[in-house]
Amino acid sequence: MISLQSLLADHTHNLTIPGRDGKIHIHRDSHGVAHIKGTTSRDCYFAQGICIAQDRLFQLHYQRSLAKGQGAALLGKGLLRRDKQNRTIGYHRAAIREWKEQTKEAKVILIAYSEGISYIINKQIENNTLPYEFHILGIKRIDNWHPIDSLAVIKMVADSFKWIQKLQHQKVLNKLGEKGLKAFFPNYPRGTTVITSDTGWTLDQNEHYYDHESDNMYNIGYQGAINGGSNCWVVSGKRTKTGKPLVCGDPHLGITMPGMWYMVTMECEEFKVAGPCNPCYPGPVFYGTANDNVAWTMTHAQGDRNDLYVEKVRQRPNQVPEVLFKDTWLKMEVIEETIEVAGVVVGIDGAIKTVNNNNIAPKMIEKSYVQHKIYISPHHGAIIEGDPEKDSLVMANKWNLANCPSHDMHALHLMHHAKTYNDLKKGIRALDSISGNYCFADGVEGNIGYQYSGLIPKRPCYLLPVAGWDGKYEWDGNVPKNELPIVHNPDSGVVFSANNRHSDHSFPHYLSFYGFRHRAERLNSYFKARSNKQDFTFQDMEDLQNDSISEYAKEFILLMKKNMRIEENYYNNNKTKKKKNENNNIMLSTKAEKLYYILSNWDCDMKANANEPTIFHNVLGKLCRDTVIPYFKQVFKGNQIWSTQRLQLIDGMGRGKSSPILPSGKTWKELLFAAFEVAAEKYDEKKTWGDIHRIKWGHSLGRFKGYEPVFNLTSGKHMPVSGSSFTLHCTHGSFGGVGLAGVTYRQIHSLTKPQTSYASVYPGNSGQPSSPFYSNNLNRWRNAKTHKLYLNWDEIVEHSISQMEVNGANSKL
Fold this sequence. Notes:
Low-confidence stretches: 197-206, 212-227, 346-364, 570-584
Oligomer: single chain
Largest sheet: 11 strands, mixed
Mean pLDDT: 88
Strand order of the largest sheet: 1-35-2-3-7-8-9-10-20-21-23
Number of strands: 35
Helix content: 25-40%
């Protein structure tokens, strides 16, 4: 019987590995952060691969399997649809082509990193110490890591699934018409906070090419952006107590075990960097600090890299299907693949059993194989809707990252070597796959700025599928990098992003059709209210990251009051007088009246220990179930209320009686009165927001009986938390359900000399359940706290709790 403890990675055993440039020192501190000191950058990235493989090997293999379309071979048929999707889009195919196009510097980074991971893989196979997940699944061997694996995961992470959203647009138009499609897009009012001074998109695309739906393999359920995005901001040294910039950030992603990030610092003769890495490729690249002088933070820019093209298809006997393009019939490329599906069953004792080549247990399901055929249009990419063998119209997904080589690792090289503001800006601008709103600063000259990053096709906005046969909707390359939005030293002394729109309607290029405004509105109001403050501190930034005031709730309450039109009387000693509407024909019950008063005077703080958010929750839920949900249920299945539906609700309330989500014969006033009556029936003055709003920290294997207590951090009632999808302290999921997304990392860097930094990856830096660093940051996460990030090597050694050396210079592997 293998124990968890026996599989725990040894962080103290020195290694002799030929082919290094010098001695490598690896220390872990009391927070589980890996600190690396080497002679060269090559050795640092090699050691980064070692550290990540020691602590996150199953996560590495799982993500690699998904990117290659091999998830079902690992965890069974539940991932078969995902495998088909990922193979069709072609992350791994694109990565194979892309590897050949990498610069010398990028190849050095990727090869070194891959060698480090592969060394640990081989050692753990040799010693039979692969992580516990592999033992549960009966897996005794896995392939070495290859640079192409990293590039494939980068592709998968960079795919923002705009093609799925555009399929949703088509489904809405088919069922509800243009009026319904306009209601599908929450309004982004003029005057709302933008990052720079955004191109407008409109619904003026009147062509309607695809009005039938096939039984496709993709899950295009109606959720919208359930993960809520991220926050980042930079405060100029002119407005801080130290006189140096503060660089802050917190990404909002799916809550998973292990976490989404791995914290590392690296130091060599060439550079000194610190920050969180995606475990599957070298970093830090999304957030970090370099060379004691520059630091960066970012949010997802929601760049639109996909367009859907309706293709006219011609079939001929014993021939590859052809598509029409400018009066010429062109053959499709056809790729036939075999997908392995592991035989996974749950035994009587609840244990997971897996069929492998040499381990077929009695009464178990044999592993199986599924044939998958991929059709690729010469000009527009993989077919994602329809069957080219029998349909006259099919739909292709054109994605610029599928065929345009990305050079993110070269950008990483530039960012890690950056010593000035302009150096860092050059590195950020070189990013191709990452569509990001980067905010950054330097500590010598005190510059702060913003740079939009990523390759975005140059064309107008196409919210719907367009004709692929006439050449009318082709792209004109990509938007030039030097024409992407940028900000330099704004007069306000602050630059920030919270996934809001990048600029106003004067911007000449279309970049994206989505923007989330309420968290940005909160940042804007916070800094405007303190426009004369010149002494911002770490504590101010930490308090702001913990802020749970909802600008969405404020907007809702204004619309509520406008639509209900209740005369204000008085409220005293827990007794109320009737409040009547103007026509005196609808009356609130005494209990509902009390709730109306409470909500009208609420500060809109979604604190876990507050009672008012429960009232807001019940009123909002009833309104959504009476309007948005039944209206769009004509198109989408399910009754869950995600962030997008809540935005559609207040948009409908703002439009008044013209909104199509308002049921026929009803008024918003009637619906609001009814919602308060329902809320009154459910009201419990002892219930808090934390009783309703909870987060689950779960592992992909923790859903199986017997393994939940091993892998999952929370069970039963899960963890009560403050905030919502619309607050800076962002934690959320489906409405009224267990939250599945939230803050996954926090940083606050002060570019002083020496630099002072605080950060935390959540819930911990290790992916091994028996490690003390599997969940050591969980309480910090709950309270929006960070820990000191040690950057000076003497300080690192002083706080080290384990150390190892890698020797083997001047030899060859």
